[in-house]
UniProtKB/TrEMBL annotation:
Keyword Hydrolase on entry: no
GO molecular function ontology, one term from the record: ATP binding
CDD domains linked to this entry: ABC_6TM_ABCC_D2 (cd18580)
Localization: Membrane
Species assigned in the record: Strombidinopsis acuminata
Predominant location category: membrane
Membrane topology of this protein: Multi-pass membrane protein
Single GO cellular component term: membrane
Official protein name in the record: ABC transmembrane type-1 domain-containing protein
ABC transmembrane type-1 domain segment(s): 1-233
Keyword tags: ATP-binding, Membrane, Nucleotide-binding, Transmembrane, Transmembrane helix, Transport
Gene3D superfamilies named in the record: ABC transporter type 1, transmembrane domain, P-loop containing nucleotide triphosphate hydrolases
PROSITE patterns hit by this protein: ABC_TM1F
Amino acid sequence: MSSVFVYTRVVTLQWFSWYATKKMHEDMISRVLNAPINLYFDTTPTGRILNKFSKDLSAIETMLVYLTGTFYVSLYSTISILVISIFVVWWIIFFVPIIVYLVYRVFKRSIAGVKDVTRVESVSKSPLLSFLGETISGASTIRSYDKVDGFISRNMELLNNNILASMWCESIPLWFAIRIDIISVFMMLIVSLICVIYRNSGHAVVLSLLLTYVMTLQQFVSSIIRNLMQIEARMVNVDRCLKVLDIPQENTAGKMELERFKRLNPEWPDHGEIIFDNVILKYRPTTEIVLNNLSFDVAAGEKIGVVGRTGAGKSTICLSLSRIVEIVSGSIKIDGINIREVELNYLRSRITVIPQDPTMFTGTLRFNLDPENQVSDDRIYQVLESAQ
């Protein structure tokens, strides 16, 4: 019967853990993929994103469920032993509040440090992952400029910071375990004195049973507090993952329903006329204005060139057309329709931008030319031949 209960407990906890982690991962992916480039990706290091999707999610899926299960097993066992002990020697109940108070004081002093150190350890891993990724991608440049030693030194510095935080994460539970053992010795002393006092009462078997239970109780109490401390530490990982759900999102909805817009404008944009009317644009609310009251017209079929110094806002004009960066005020119209009224995904599907830096995605050439598989192979070959 015990095996059935254990099996049910393990399966139930694992299922809830799998479901919760899966839902958390799906929500995090959705929030990250729909985050504005200028408000999130331009300000968030890659290592921080990878850290949340790797270490933090892994801690939730693997460690949190194990710690929760062990905590409840130890808690129920402790309650059972206390009830039996009080039944054997009723006045031992007066010592329980003292033990609870001592354990609580030690726990309160250590838990704040555990949470802070766990947060520091998680934060220190992000720059390390970012630095490793940047070093690998720029390895040839680093070698060509003979900066290998400098990058190794920087890597060792970041690694030492992370190892130091990890060491403190392991040290605080050990500090706590020593204090719990001291309290356990005090508890065993009380029980031993009780056994000595009642040694001639004719209840030697009962007293020996009490002593055995209390020795077991010490292990369960220590397990409860350690697991509770680790659960609190793992909640730091949960908090970091939940912060991903607060990432600002792109405003994908248009002022007009998409199907209605398609019925009214089935071929939009069919001419290509572009009108910028007093456009003001910032990359972020705290940064300077990049486009300040910009107004110009591009006639349908007209080819123009935008000339300006670096940072003047030439590329920003293309970003504003596809609403990669939203304008602060003014309007941008394509064929007489304000692009803010168009559903975002549909707008981007109707505009083609050839970037300054060509990028190839992993996969076939056909996938890079037609990722949505909307045209035939003959059309792909025709385009390739015309580009030679």
